[in-house]
Specification:
Helix content is 41%, strand content 18%. It is α/β, with parallel strands linked by helices.
């Protein structure tokens, strides 16, 4: 199986232009006919994912040219502010789609920065006559979590990308949700490299299939898993594995709805208590079972240390430590948006 390994990150950082597949001569006009610019970082350029998408399009008779401006750990802010990065590349060419991929943790810790620069890029992309596209990335690997993906991180990533799509009118490509679905359906599929963050060749191929399904509104099932650009092997995914990934990509793309996700999230938040509502109830008589009955099951647990983490409204986290009798011993609130922490006096 072909796949670029993590140590080649520095080499890949300088890749700004993806070598092209020649469009098929008899290719028909299609919804995705044209040029795509990817603006992102290593989550985009690992394993030459844009070339995979271009190869899938070529195999189905869709003329497509993919280019990318990607640098390791780049954010939308750095692509906007730094000369020669994403903004410059966008302004210097003619594009049908422009794909924006934020740095993997920025939507979780600096959602305000993502909001600002996704908005700036979205406006400029529209002015250039192109369609803005948002690449919903995946949560980091978590061996203890259901499906092997950090579910809380994935929820926040999907939430922030969906919010930006509503604000900018961008097309949402649900790659992260497809990874979650794939890990649940095919737990032996290794989508990650050893670092638990970057994509393996399988992960990048699944990503390309989700882009294909979403941009062209066509099923990728039956397209090749092995592709080359001249003598250069782009990917070599066994047929059975390729088909399984294609099916996940198509089903996710077909059923995912960003607006419905936002509505479901809002409904969920309305049922969750706030920090202000909960604080007076955090007493030494409060048992673990009583707390769970009030606010639901913990998002993370260390049963041996009797330490539990709970999600509250407005992305506030409660960290609660219990005595051997499972009565509350200490508690603190932590903001997931950089608002600091607050220790509670448990009486």
């Amino acid at each position: 199986m072909f796949g670029l390994r993590f140590p080649f990150l520095c080499f890949l950082c300088v890749l700004c232009c993806v070598a092209g597949f020649a469009p098929a001569k008899d290719a028909r006009a299609a919804a995705g006919d044209g040029r795509i610019l990817f603006i992102g970082n290593s989550f985009t350029y690992f394993n030459q994912m844009p070339l995979m998408l271009q190869g899938l399009a070529q195999a189905s008779g869709i003329p497509l040219t993919c280019r990318m401006q990607a640098e390791g750990a780049a954010t939308l802010q750095s692509h906007w502010d730094n000369p020669g990065q994403g903004k410059s590349r966008l302004e210097s060419g003619s594009w049908r789609y422009v794909v924006l991929q934020e740095q993997s943790s920025t939507p979780v810790g600096r959602a305000d920065a993502m909001k600002k620069y996704a908005g700036l890029f979205g406006k400029l992309i529209r002015e250039k006559g192109a369609i803005p596209v948002l690449f919903v990335t995946w949560g980091y690997r978590d061996e203890k979590a259901s499906g092997g993906v950090n579910g809380e991180m994935q929820k926040i990533l999907t939430l922030e990308y969906a919010r930006r799509a509503e604000e900018t009118g961008a097309l949402l490509v649900p790659v992260g949700p497809a990874w979650v679905a794939c890990m649940r359906l095919h737990p032996k599929a290794n989508l990650y490299l050893e670092d638990g963050q970057h994509p393996s060749a399988l992960g990048s191929y699944l990503t390309a299939c989700v882009f294909y399904a979403t941009l062209f509104r066509k099923s990728p099932v039956g397209l090749p898993g092995t592709m080359a650009a001249g003598k250069h092997v782009v990917c070599d995914i066994p047929a059975a594995q390729a088909r399984a990934l294609q099916q996940v990509a198509w089903e996710t793309s077909r059923t995912f709805d960003g607006r419905k996700f936002l509505e479901a999230y809002a409904a969920e938040q309305s049922r969750i208590v706030s920090k202000e509502e909960l604080k007076p109830k955090l007493t030494r008589d409060l048992t673990y079972d009583a707390l769970v009955a009030m606010i639901g099951k913990p998002t993370h647990a260390n049963a041996e240390g009797r330490t539990y983490q709970f999600g509250l409204r407005n992305r506030v986290m409660l960290l609660a430590v219990f005595s051997p009798e499972m009565k509350l011993q200490s508690a603190s609130f932590h903001s997931e948006e950089g608002g600091g922490s607050e220790r509670v006096e448990v009486k």
